[in-house]
Automatic annotation (TrEMBL):
Localization of this protein: Cell membrane
InterPro entries: MFS, MFS_dom, MFS_trans_sf, Sugar_transporter_CS
GO molecular function terms noted in the UniProt entry: transmembrane transporter activity
CDD domains linked: MFS_NepI_like
Annotated organism of origin: Agaricicola taiwanensis
Protein's name in the database: MFS transporter
Residues that span the membrane, as ranges: 42-62, 74-94, 106-123, 135-153, 165-186, 192-214, 247-267, 279-302, 309-327, 333-356, 368-388, 394-415
């Protein structure tokens, strides 16, 4: 993936490459409670907020897209699925290039470019141009998720990694909530174009705050040049690691359930007997507030009590929530959505920290593989769910997501602790 420079938004590089650390000298890792830990936590919270608000801001607009452009729900879902699909593969390239370019600069460039592209979406004259711009936005956003996970795994003391990763995931939850809820509310006040432009400006401000706060890498050594054989061999080694492979598959199941549920909840609630407005549907995404709390708590619990049981508990809560949404009363539907959200962010937070602990030295490669599977779940199942919705309604969507949730639960229970 290439990153094109924009005047005034040039990537800020890490410090020059340092000699490889001596084996007898412990790494300079950041301890919880220090000013550096607080700076990292806030900076990565901003990264999660910006990237996920830009990524998912179109989700509450899918019913409006279907109506305005005369397209099917499955076609409308491409506004999100194309972005997450491009992101899935861009993450692999970003993880590899970050070895040569540095973590901090690549994350900043990705955040800034994605914000500018979101403004361009607001100016798109046609549906096809909107899809092309969203595809480009997914490509540039690849520089944030895998690199953020690798940065935390390298720089934070392992005893406190779960908590730090939980805060980053909380930032993604907050961003996803603001992107979805904010778009719904702003669209009622202005238009979807005005809302997309405003969100782009907010994302650009978050990128500037991120680069001002994040300390340069201290335990990362730049590796000049691009070595395809090295990257392929490293990815292959991670895929042959059965524990990592199971966690990658869990990531696919998690987003398959989560994104598919939210994609078609909007269609369900705009239909009879509910007939909710755009703003009312956007308010359903306030369930992400529970994800912010649960993800930060889950990371700390995993540090203290191990990872397999909190992970399994999160997936189990998701599956139970999927089943609750079969009920007809609106309060029970919302309860089911809250349960899916809480379970998802518990599980994702635990897996994100676990990947870094199992990956050894090649943390960026492991993170990029996990997120490849993670976003493929969002892209592939998120669109396939449209076929289930069109042919079987909500019970068919529950059948699809419930089956994937059970698969994720089985995988979670079979991953061995370190």
């Amino acid at each position: 993936m290439s990153i094109t420079s924009i005047p005034g938004l040039a990537p800020v590089p890490d410090r020059p490459a340092a000699p490889a650390p001596r084996a007898d000298v412990p790494p300079q890792q950041i301890q919880r409670g220090t000013p550096a830990y607080r700076q990292v936590s806030i900076a990565l919270f901003l990264a999660g907020f910006s990237s996920f608000s830009l990524l998912y801001c179109v989700q509450p607009l899918l019913p409006a897209f279907a109506q305005s452009f005369g397209i099917s729900p499955a076609s409308a879902s491409l506004a999100l699925s194309l972005t997450t699909g491009a992101l899935a593969f861009a993450i692999l390239a970003a993880g590899a290039f970050s070895q040569a370019l540095g973590r901090r600069g690549l994350m900043f460039a990705s955040m800034a470019l994605a914000a500018v592209l979101n403004m361009a979406v607001a100016l798109s004259p046609s549906w096809n141009m909107l899809l092309v711009t969203r595809l480009a936005e997914g490509l540039v956003l690849g520089g944030v998720p895998a690199v953020a996970m690798a940065y935390l795994a390298e720089e934070i003391d392992p005893r406190h990694l779960g908590k730090a990763m939980g805060l980053y995931v909380a930032g993604t939850a907050f961003g996803a909530m603001v992107g979805r809820v904010g778009m719904g509310v702003l669209t009622e006040l202005t238009s979807w174009r005005g809302a997309m432009g405003i969100l782009g400006i907010v994302g650009l401000a978050a990128a500037l705050g991120f680069v001002a706060l994040l300390p340069p890498s201290r335990n990362f050594v730049v590796q000049r040049g691009f070595r395809p054989r090295y990257h392929l061999a490293t990815w292959g080694g991670h895929l042959r690691n059965t524990r990592l492979a199971r966690l990658f598959a869990v990531g696919f199941a998690l987003t398959s359930v989560f994104v598919t549920m939210f994609n078609y909840t909007g269609f369900r609630l705009t239909d009879a007997p509910y007939g909710l407005s755009q703003t009312a549907i956007a308010m359903v995404f306030l369930a992400f507030a529970f994800g912010i709390v649960s993800s930060s708590m889950a990371g700390g619990l995993a540090d203290r009590f191990g990872r397999r049981l909190p992970l399994a508990a999160g997936v189990l809560i998701m599956v139970a929530g999927v089943l609750v949404t079969l009920a007809q009363p609106l309060p029970l539907i919302i309860l089911g959505i809250v349960m899916v959200t809480v379970g998802f962010f518990i599980a994702h937070s635990v897996v994100s920290g676990w990947i870094g602990r199992l990956a050894g030295a090649a943390k960026g490669h492991a993170s990029s593989l996990y997120l490849l599977f993670y976003y493929l779940g969002s892209s592939v199942t998120g669109s396939v769910g449209g076929w289930f919705w069109s042919h079987g309604g909500w019970p068919a969507v529950v059948m699809l997501t419930g089956a994937l949730g059970v698969l994720g639960l089985v995988l979670a229970l079979t991953v061995r602790e370190e």
